[in-house]
Amino acid sequence: MDILKARCFSIAAISYSLLFFGCGKSENSKPKDTDKEKKYELIWSDEFDGTKLDTDKWNYETGTGFGNQEKQYCTDREKNVKVEDGNLVITAYKEDYNNCSYTSARINSKKKGFLKYGKIEARISLPSGKGTWPAFWMLPEVGYWPTYGEIDIMEHVGSDPTMISHAVHTAQKNGSNGQNWQNKQYPGVVEGEFHTYAIEWLNDYDDGDDCIIFYIDDKESTRLYQPHNINDLAVWPFTADFYVILNLSIGGTWGGQIDDSIFNNPAKPVQMKVDYVRLYQKK
Predict the structure, then answer these.
(1) 70, 121, 155, 200: which is the annotated catalytic residue?
(2) Mean pLDDT of all residues in 181-195
(3) Which of 9, 25, 83, 139 is most buried, judged by most C-beta within 10 A?
(4) CA neighbours within 13 Å on the CB side: how many for 245?
(5) What predicted TM-score, i.e. pTM, was given to this entire model?
(6) Residues forming a β-bridge with 208
């Protein structure tokens, strides 16, 4: 997801994954981790234990569309984004607002919480219902999309209730040309329950290549390698500081058709809840 692009997820994107990371290692090849590689120190976090969003750590992004034809208007209202009972709560509504028929929220940690290499994780409860499209992802502190890359740690769409998507975008292969790398996982119930989503973003991990390892509930989902001996920004731009984005989109290029009945039950609001976000680097 990105404000600068039109998103295009397709099954065809998966078929390109081996071409994109054809570097002499298979996606499932798993070099042995050392104890040293697993030792991290926390450098930034938000446990959402306060009474309102900490604007020393987060920025509001307001607006609509975001290049993905999203149908909601993202606001900075407490109605749409608040901190409550130890969680960040993003709530979507069906309501007329600024020429849109839905509202929600999107926040980012740009220039406030970022890293280059390390571990990034969040514990998240996802909404249910067709048309919902929550995401936990990262963009670079400097540069523009897609040249400087995008890492989608977790995305989910209500039309596929048990699916979690991991993805990356580069100048060469991205959502706009339908060739971005994407890996879909089906870990079971993900809507309405808290699960942990994470990546380890490793420098010179194996035979000199960088690697991004994706996790759900501390279990590895998949891993991606920098193509061997290729240091081309268009192919592997993941060498700079990236910041975090959390949002709940409604509709759009991947959210799809919206079932308006999901907004009719006050006892079951359309919400994305986040228990914490944590960034770690190697000691």
Answers:
(1) 155
(2) 96
(3) 139
(4) 23
(5) 0.87
(6) none
